Every structure is written in C-alpha cells, then in structure tokens.
Amino acid sequence: MTKEELFQELERGIANGEINREELVSRFNFAPMAPGYGEEKPNDSMSFSMNKMLYVLGSAVVVIGIIIFFYQIWDQLGSFGRISVTLGLGFLLAAIGSFLLKQKSNDNIGAIFHSIGGLLVPGGAMVTLHEMNISADSLWPTTITFGFIFAFYLLVNLIHKNAVLTFFAIANGTAFIYLLVESMTDGAYYTHGDLYAYLTMVIGISYLFLAHAFRGGWNRTLVGVLCFFGSAYFLGAAFSRVFDSDLWRMGYFLLVVGGLFLSAYLRSRAILVVSTFFLLAHVSYITGEYFADSMGWPISLVILGFIFIGLGYISININKKYIRS
C-alpha cells in the first residue's frame, strides 16, 4: 500500500467517525503543536459555530414555515395530500439528507435535511394512520408504526454513522418501548404508575450507558443530552416512588448521592445539576413531611436554607475539582 493510499484510508476513517484526532495523538504520542500551527484559529472556530447556529436557526424556520403553511391549507387537502405533505415530505427530505451525507460526509447540510425529515416522519405516520382510519380502536398500529420508524433510523444510521440519525433512532425507539408496554397492558396508562416508573428508570439507565459508550466516538455530541435525560428519567421516576414508601424515602438519598459520584466519574455537569436538583427536592419533601409540624415552618425553612447552601457549596466544589478541571 502506497503512502497516498494510507492517507486516503486515514481520511475515510476520520470522516466515518471510526477514529478521531485525540485517538491519533494518544496512539502515536504526537507532541503538541505550536500555537497557530494546525490548530483552529479563533475566527475559524467562531465561523464554524456561527455556521452551525445558522443551520439550526434555518431548520427551525423551515419547520415552522411548513407547519404554518400546511395548517392554512389543511382543510383543502384530501387524504392523499395530507399524507404526501407530511409523511411523504419527511421521507423525501430524509432521502435528500442521505444523498448529501454520501456526497459531502464532512458537511452538516445533509444532517440538517435529516433533522427536518426526522421531525416530519413521526407526525406524518400519525396523519397516515388517522386518514386511513387504522388506529381508532387499538394502539397496536401506532406501536408497529413507531417500530418501523425506529428500525428505519437504525438502518440509515448504520449506513451514514451520524449523530443526528442516532438521536432520532433513540427518540423513536423510546417511543416504541412505551407504546409497546401500553399495548401489552390492560386499562389506561395512569392505572400502571408503578410499571411506568420502573420502565422510565430502566430507560434512564440505558441512556447513561449509551452516553458512556458514545464518549470519544462519532456520537460524542449526544453525550451531554443523554446524561441529562438519563439522570432526569432515572431520578425523576425514582422520586415518584418516594411518596408511597418509607423504604424509598430513605433509599432515595443513596440514589442522589450516587448521582453526584457518577457526575464526578463521568465528568458530566448535566448529571451534577440534575442530581443536585433532586437532592434539594427530596430534602425539601423530607423536611416538610417530618419536621414542619414538630419544629414549625419558620425554623424548618431556616434549616432548609442552610442545607441548600451546603449542598450548593458541595455541588460547586464537585464541578470545580472533578468536572471543570
């Protein structure tokens, strides 16, 4: 293999996200380059951030414009027209996004088209079921539909390896899991509070495992989002159990303290913020439940205020010592 072929193979690996610059530096022990050589200049970084912001802003404007336009003419469209401008347009934009990702793998424009399409496809699928009068009596058609959407984004993501596609695969997969559980149970969803609480905790843990697995890879931009929602799902669902069980009231302290340790281990500010918030919420609940009547609300509030100050101090120190450094 010639030197040029080696460079081309390396470029393909970087473009596909199989390797990154940090891995190359650590593997071959490259010395840090002098400032200004081979590094992104501040103006270049600012330009890159500005381009990303304009992409996101443009996508939001496009989606809002599409929604407003079709809302105005919705009654004039027949069933075929409504399906075409929602589901059909979503898949068309996804196809354009895939084409652009194939042609320009280092450009964000393909991911932008996939972002717009990903917002239209689930809603378009629901419009299709409604127009065809399929999902009126059973939740199974909706469940199967989201299962197909989940499989679609998994397949497309295997081809392109893009974080936007991973996001939509996770989002539709989560919806599919909830719909599947609801389809398999009898009665309304609010009669199965315990089941959904534990299911949400499992999903939250799954998000945290995904966040850990994505660190350093081509999905690393999703790590912060997954850490936030994973910790929020887990601690939020666990907090809903506190009101009905003394065991949960005591054990919940261990969970939120574990969240603080996890934030330091994963160096995640999102987990730190969520854990601190739920720790404050739990301390407030315990204070109101057990001490407000015996000590009175004024004294309880004073004690609660000092506890908040202490927890804030601990949270700030964890951030400075383990996360920011």
Summarize the structure.
By secondary structure, the chain is mainly α. The chain contains 12 helices and no strands.
Question: In terms of topology, how is this protein built?
Answer:
Blueprint: H1 3-15, H2 21-28, H3 42-73, H4 79-103, H5 109-131, H6 140-160, H7 163-184, H8 193-214, H9 223-241, H10 246-266, H11 269-295, H12 297-324
Helix pairs in contact: 3-5, 4-5, 5-6, 5-7, 6-7, 8-9, 9-10, 9-11, 10-11, 10-12, 11-12
Keywords: Membrane, Transmembrane, Transmembrane helix
Transmembrane segments: 54-74, 80-101, 108-127, 139-156, 163-181, 196-214, 221-243, 249-266, 271-291, 297-316
Protein name: DUF2157 domain-containing protein
Percent strand: under 5%
Given as residue ranges, the uncertain stretches (5+ residues, pLDDT < 50) are 31-48
Rg from alpha-carbon coordinates = 24 Å
Q: Pairing-aware structural class of the strands and helices?
A: mainly alpha
Number of structurally distinct domains: 2
Percent in helix: over 70%
Compute the number of strand runs. 0
Q: Tally the helices.
A: 12
- Silhouette: globular
Strand count, sense and barrel status of the largest sheet are: none
Order of helices and strands: HHHHHHHHHHHH
| Distance between the first and last residues' Cα | 42 Å
Q: Give the overall average pLDDT.
A: 82
